[in-house]
Amino acid sequence: MSDEPSCSNSYAARTDSIVNSQRDSIEDECDDEVDLGSEEDSRPSKNSSSPDSDFNAPAIVNCIDDHAEYMIEKGNEARYAQISPEPNPVIFNIEIHEFEKRGDGINAFVVYKLETEVVNVPGYTKRHYETWRRFSDFLSLHGKLVEKYQSKGVIIPQPPGKSLSAFTKTKVGSEISREMGVDRARHLVRFINRVCQHPRMSVDCDVRDFITIESPLPKVIQTNSIAGFGGKFLKNMQDVLAKMTFQMEEGDQWFEKTQGQMEELEFALKDMHLATEKLVAARRELATSSENMSKALGMLASTEESTTLSLALSALTDITENVSAVWTKQADSDGEKLSETIHEHLMLIVSLKAVFTERIRAWQQWQDAQQLLGRKRDQKTKIDLSIGQRSEKSEQLKVEIEETIQRMDGLEKNFGDLSKAIREEVVRFNEQRRLDMKQMLVEYMENMLNTHVEMLKYWETLEPHANAIQV
């Protein structure tokens, strides 16, 4: 590159001879490239101008310093691409802080208070919403979303499953268990927030009504545990039988590779989920053992005759009790942020498999239409050959063939659109999964670090008591 400055605000530095020689060609063909001549003659000058030249081409700005001067010179004639403003941030967050039991006996049910914050989402006129929803409302919403979007290739998050023990406690017990209510509320929050993260489902009319309408939603028929289990079992059996009786000839290597990757991911997540469940159980057992140890130390301290040793044992009792509480808190954190996150992604993979099954079903419908078209063409050919001329039956088959062709084209287009939508959903799923896994691991390490720092502070308080023991 030349050592001369490369910044210029005009083409006026060109020599008069070059401008005059090129003027005619510019008038004839304004898009032709202009020959700038030799490097010495065409070297740009920042402050140069040519009064004899009437060539009013827009200036080239190559550096930041010249930008202000150029804008002053050209004013409104400057044609710059305006920098688009940054998009407004989208906020869609739902939390459940309260729940209560309503009704008595067999008519009893639990409702959860949804507190929603929505910003820059179409269809939502307010920033904050508060609604009460029962568990069956969540199941009804999931059913509607599956019916509308699963056949279109959208991955539908799974709601928490029904629990027979929770059902019994709600119907028979006078009050709902606090632990059971908090646990279910946390799973419901995961489900509804995952739904609202999706760009299509977040603006769905059923989702919007679920979040914004303050009055109770219409009661859903057949939402009991037995009906839900029976319907799910029947659908699973239908899918299994369909796969056994019909094998799809996969022509897209991307889908074949993706399904293999999802199988491996599901297997790895199942192992990790089992390991985290054992980890949580071990931490709870450690917390229980520490609490029992604290009680035993307290009894020993009360019977010790040595004052200094009794004080040290009392201090150790308090420390062991505090350590037990810390391990309990760590076990709860591991269960909520580690184990439940992994289980949530396992359920998303189940939903992704259901979408792949929809693609197989769409391909099967397309193939059935092709086979039907072939049979109708064979029938028409046989009739034409046997009669020797077109008959009423032949004309009817001709109409049916045209209708079958149109239907087959529609099924082919549907299969292509579904395949494209699934590709986009898989990409979105993988991106969100990486973000979730990163957040999960970071939070786990931070919690573990805080746990050990807190326990270290407790154990450091034992040192002066231990040093003060007199034998």
Summarize the structure.
This protein has helices at residues 16-28, 64-74, 135-149, 164-172, 178-197, 205-212, 225-245, 253-303, 307-387, 392-460, 463-467; strands at residues 91-102, 109-119, 128-134. The protein has 471 residues and is mainly alpha-helical. GO terms for molecular function: phosphatidylinositol binding.
Are there runs of 5+ residues with pLDDT below 50, and where? Answer: 1-23, 25-82, 223-227
How many strand segments? 3
CATH structural architecture of the largest domain: Up-down Bundle
Query: What is the domain total for the residues?
Result: 3
Summarize model confidence as the mean pLDDT. Answer: 81
The helix-strand sequence is: HHEEEHHHHHHHHH
Helix content: 55-70%
CATH-defined superfamily of the largest domain: Arfaptin homology (AH) domain/BAR domain
What structural category do the secondary elements indicate? mainly alpha
**How big a fraction of the residues is strand?**
5-15%
The CA-CA distance between the termini, in Å, is 86 Å
> What's the total helix number?
11
Neighbour order of strands in the largest sheet: 1-2-3
- What is the third-level CATH name, the topology of the largest domain? Substrate Binding Domain Of Dnak, Chain:A, Domain 2
Radius of gyration equals 36 Å
Characterize the main sheet: 3 strands, antiparallel
Keywords: Cytoplasm, Golgi apparatus, Membrane, Phosphoprotein, Protein transport, Transport
Biased composition (Low complexity): 45-54
InterPro entries: AH/BAR_dom_sf, PX_dom, PX_dom_sf, Vps5_C
Protein name: PX domain-containing protein
